[in-house]
Amino acid sequence: MAAGREQRRAAIAAYKELLREFIDRRPSGLRGRLARALGKHKSFISQITNPAYDVPIPAGDLPVLFEVCHLTPDERHRFLELYEKAHPRGARRTAGRSAAPQEIRIPLPAFARAETALEVEATIREFAARVIRIARLAEAAGRGDDQGGSR
Q1: Pair 63, 136: CB distance under 8 Å
Q2: What is the C-alpha separation between 66 and 57, in angstroms, rounded?
Q3: Do 60 and 140 contact (CB within 8 A), yes or no?
Q4: pLDDT digits 0-9 by tens, 118-130
Q5: CB neighbours of 124 closer than 8 A, spacing ≥ 6?
Q6: Looking at the whole model, is its pTM more than 0.85?
């Protein structure tokens, strides 16, 4: 029993180490943006990116994490391989949902300052990630079947 627990901890640490490497290669402020997109406190982000903590990353948070962190398909694949070793059932459900994402385009005006354009884009991405997370949680709870509700 203890050996199984240690194997699970090692598997969790492996995908957290990889995630931390991905995040460390991105621009600063990503942990804060990720916390806002997930609706969590920054300390939660510290826990799910630190291999020393065996707090697992919830499977439902993976699509938001992939979007906000801008993981490439190769990075997602590498991460999901390790995640599935730690959580075999949760990874399969999440991988299937995120295999063929839909994409929308939002035209933005030409801003005078590049910083403004970047901030607007980041805000739109964070908002979209939060809305998607809420919709997925509603689906998981069985409320997303749109049974005659008004739009």
Answers
A1: yes
A2: 12
A3: yes
A4: 899 889 988 988 8
A5: 106
A6: no
